[in-house]
From TrEMBL:
Protein name (database record): Alpha-1,6-mannosyltransferase
Broad class of where this protein is predominantly found: membrane
InterPro entries the record matches: MptA/B-like
Organism this protein belongs to: Kutzneria viridogrisea
Intracellular or extracellular location(s): Membrane
Chain segments annotated as transmembrane: 46-67, 82-104, 217-234, 240-259, 266-283, 303-330, 342-363, 383-404, 416-434, 440-458, 479-495, 507-526
GO molecular function, one term: glycosyltransferase activity
Record keywords: Glycosyltransferase, Membrane, Transferase, Transmembrane, Transmembrane helix
Lineage: Bacteria, Bacillati, Actinomycetota, Actinomycetes, Pseudonocardiales
Amino acid sequence: MLVARLKHLVTWLAGDPRQPVLTPVEQTPVRLDRAERRQLDGIRRFGTVGSLLMACGGLGAGASPVINPLPGVPMLGLFPRIPTVAIASAFTGMAMLVLAWLWLGRFTWPGRPRLLSRAQMDRTLVMWTVPLVLVPPMFSQDVYSYLAQSWAVDKGLDPYTSGAAAGLGPDDVLAQNVPTIWRDTPSPYGPLFLTLGRLVTSISGTNVVIGVLLERVLMLIGLGLIVWALPRLARRFGVPPISAIWLGAANPLVIFHLVVGVHNEALGIGLMLAGFVIALHRLPAVEPGDPVPPLGRHELLGLLAGAVVITLGAGIKIPALVALGFLGVMIARRWGGTFRQLVWAGAALVGIAGLVTAGITVASGLGWGWTGTLNGGTIVLSWLSPVTLVGLAASGAGIALQLGNHTNAIVGTIRFLGWLVFAGGSALVLWRSFKGRYSAMYGMGLVLVLFVVFGPVVQPWYVLWPIIPLATAVTNPRFRLWATVICALVAIVTPPTGSTFDGRVFVLPQSAVAAIVLTAILLLLVRGRLPAREPRGKDAEVRPVTAEPVG
């Protein structure tokens, strides 16, 4: 019942998704009319005010460092001393941004006769993002782990044999900021990311503020790659580019967790998508049932260059390697489409990925220790992970029945079964893409869905791994509605503090209630100035979508 009501709410805010949609070839969207442009101005301002409230709230509610420089700063130092007000401000800003994003979705939904222009979308994204560039990290403390591990590398230590506290010492300023659970854990990040981090700490040293801002610059570069790649891939796979940017870049999860939260998913996803764009640049799109043209020399070089860039993305975050499997499918289909050619294409890409990875590892001087620490995040029993949740439920049932506490064994077994399902499902999706039933981008998105659902650990920002690629490949209204619901729900329920706020958990519910009241008042103030329901009749009549190209 709750989910049904939430879907109804999102449908009311973002428009009716059940109208048929068009491919970009069939659809000729026109500019927004005067009334819609006025509504767009209201949406922009509403979201920008939300960003400003988040920025102010983040000064007192964010995941501040242990030695917080803000209390001694005039005016800005006020926010850390009023945590309830700060968190309420951040929650209100989050709600306003999510609502503004949903309203903006009315002007970007595939099949709508009048769509937002690219310039209007870019200005909106800039207005919502710029106020949050200089705020402290929020929602997570992972950036402090990035800095401490990079500082250890800069000092010549091996981050893959000991944690930050053991390597740098418990009195080190950067080590003190690492969350307790990760202080004695070797780095789970590859040598490419730590090499980039070494460049950051060579400039910032132990200055946490400068270090966080430089790490955020890296993530903004990743966001730039995502924004650059989304419309190019969307045109390729039959989605209106503006619709892909709305779901894949203007998404509150992107702003909250990749920009404000400073997560390296921004670079990993950005390089993965950029690699796909490079690989597909010279390849003609192929409709289902059409003959597949063979590869020429320039097309093959483009595919190889794309494979290199995707491998660089995997050097940041390992899930980016999924994209190589679907590049292999595309190569094999153009070699003739036999199973033998699929094996040869896969072997070639594995060889390229191996050479690039070996080159990065040798050039970094960090050795191969990273291969044994990639699963470091699995020590967290994340209730957001369905397989881990099942394991915890089974363990809790065993404890209730007085069968003993076997949590680690049960969760480990369920996670192993989850990996088996992921492997089998990925093989099936890869095979269907090879047979032309799925487009390459759609297949890649499905495999990343399996990775999130059956993986051992899920964090709120992990949802972006499948959502962003699928935003460029799917116009199905049901998918886009569910994706919108999931993104809005995950964005709004994640606290901005990155922790339980020093154990004072009562602060969070008080702040949430205050934010709900304030948001309701703001909605009353803007009532009548923002979009109403989509028009019915002639303006809503569009032709049904045709089959998507398989790439």
